Hints:
The complex is a heterodimer of chains A (278) and B (471). Chain A is of the alpha/beta class and 278 residues long. Chain A has helices at residues 37-54, 60-71, 87-92, 94-97, 102-111, 130-150, 170-177, 229-246; strands at 10-11, 30-31, 78-81, 118-125, 161-164, 180-188, 199-205, 216-222. In chain A, β4 (118-125), α6 (130-150) and β5 form a beta-alpha-beta unit. In chain A, α2 runs parallel beside α6 (130-150). Chain A is globular and about 85 Å long. With 471 residues, chain B is α/β, with parallel strands linked by helices. In chain B, a hairpin with a 4-residue loop joins β13 (401-402) and β14 (407-408). Chain B is globular and about 80 Å long. At the A-B interface, α1 and β8 of A face α2, α11, α12, β13 and β14 of B.
Amino acid sequence: MTDKPLSPIVVDNPWARLNAFTDARIGLGRAGISLPTSKLLAFQLAHAQAQDAVHCPLDVEALSAELNGALGLTTAPIGLHSQAQDRATYLQRPDYGRRLNDGSREHLQQASTSQQRHDLAVVIVDGLSALAVQQNSAPFLNALHQALNDESSDWRLAPLTIVEQGRVAIGDEIGALLNADAVLVMIGERPGLSSPDSLGLYMTWAPEPGLRDDRRNCISNVRPAGLAVEEAARRFCLLLREARQRKLSGVQLKDRSEDDVLEGGSPSGSTRNFLVAD
Amino acid sequence: MAKTYHTTVGNRRYRFAGLAELMAKATPARAGDRLAGVMADSAEERVVAQMVLAELPLTTFLNEALVPYEEDEITRLIIDDHDAGAFEPIRHLTVGDFRNWLLSDHATSDVLTQVRPGITPEMAAAVSKLMRNQDLILVAKKCRVTTAFRNTIGLPGRLSTRLQPNHPTDDVTGIAASILDGLLYGSGDAVIGINPATDNVTQSVKLMRLMDEVIQKYQIPTQSCVLTHVTNTLEAIEQGAPVDLVFQSIGGTEATNRSFGFDLSTLAEAEAAAQSLNRGTVGRNVMYFETGQGSSLSADAHHGLDQQTCEARAYAVARKFNPLLVNTVVGFIGPEYLFDGKEITRAGLEDHFCGKLLGVPMGCDVCYTNHAEADQNDMDNLLTLLGVAGCNFIMGIPGSDDIMLNYQTTSFHDALYARRVLGLKAAPEFERWLEDMQIFQDVSTHRLNDQLPAAFANSLRHLPEEPQHDR
């Protein structure tokens, strides 16, 4: 009986060069069937950074100043706060994060006494990644304004609001208080190891407190290495237009923006890739 | 009027206002029940509730619905489908006696299979609340739930994996890269299943075609699934897309499922539509369901129940539609429902036990998010425990990092660890394929090939020269 030659201690994967095509942790190699030490420690570092990101607060002042500069706003964004007074409470009480605190509600009620209707209220919410909001809000809103300007009809926008310690549903309360036909919530998504900066977009037609998830449409992963802001804005406008036409949002309003499939570096609609190339 | 339950411990009198409250207070502590305001007020009250629950006859759950029969189609499903004949051998038992019976040598694998249609989700949930982790493992291991489509999942001594090649923009080359990585680490026998970056029909059809082409080209004995809404998949089937499995997230109350945008009739329609395609080769299980404690509370549709009882009721929905796979995505929902590694571990074992006892082909997404108090060590522990318990399948993802859904689950490496330390194997048809393709030098000892197998070496020659991927 002859022994098979032993493998090297760490076996590299010859397909590791596929790393050029995805951020997924592929081609890591192996020690036996386990992670090599360098890959293990790289993961531990990323996890430590993501955990830290969850607890980093939103700098509302800096964001307001940036948005004023970037968008040339006529009125400064309105700062609001949920019922969750701090991050620890926020993490354990999502119900608090879905409602405005008393001060914020009164503030908005006063701000919207004119009863003027708005077509759209845009609400910026820290969510689980202030980083995502801090970095992507101005570029996305620029793209959104551009896309809305390209629409045939005029859009009456409610004053911009920025919410601390908020969850998605808080936008419905804000949209209702601002007399808006539709609300767009821009919120920091839960940070991933490779994407601590991912922004989520949620749209509700006819917002009011207490609506459930099936009344909202979502566009996810808006960030430089994910869905580009221009594409996200374009998709959102398609959704908004259809919502306005059909006077509804959520599961009854399917995302038809494909007709327009996400392209991601391949010819449109094609499934061709190296695995099935002949 | 709901019955109230009383008992006295020492000089303290405890009162539980109804079965739902008793069940909730008997539940091991977790964040979601605290959030819902249904948790026991003290450690003592929890054990007292467990003692009272242990004395209840199992028949209580047939006579007292936790969610009214008139209001909830899942209660109606549970009651109307209850098999009194199968229930007969355990009819006389209390919840506490039921635990003894399950652990006893009377409850063999065959007996557990026969009794299964007589057990309701509430009975399973109730007895689980009295069980330690080792009890949940021991009884689950005795339960056999085997399903099949292009391979056979859930045989004793097997641990399958869902290959989850998600990509944040559904980039086909990026997805193909993760599929290749997974296949070359022996992953993907449960399903190759993609969560699309955006829920739309055309995108889903494109991903279905992508996976179908890969499965056909390499003749892989596995199945594919795009985890899009059931109504999207129905539309894809109408368009002639190659649909193997229909996916849907499900919950344990009618209101939860309405918040997800479907009801039981939608699932019946979907099962029939997918079966009509006749794409399975060794079986006809065409549904893939995902569940997870906390979804009903999250949808404000929990009817005052604890989250583990709601979860068990979701398995009544699952078993009605003969799924190939049911996956409890245990740590995905976040710390407001399962706060830390300890709560996630307990919930994973409970879900696996309740699912298996009810006859559901249970797998587990052993996972956590970055805002939970958990890490890879907690996942290693739960993975090992579930491997011992005979879990049907787990996830497999490159380096544990889902770059689309932003959470961490088990990696291809992790699955091989579990298979190696516990002597578990892939589904038999898939295992043969791994050997034929020379992905493993020796599949019985889980020894991978150091060289790139010929069929895949050829494919890598087709790589584009200039990657467009933006790092």
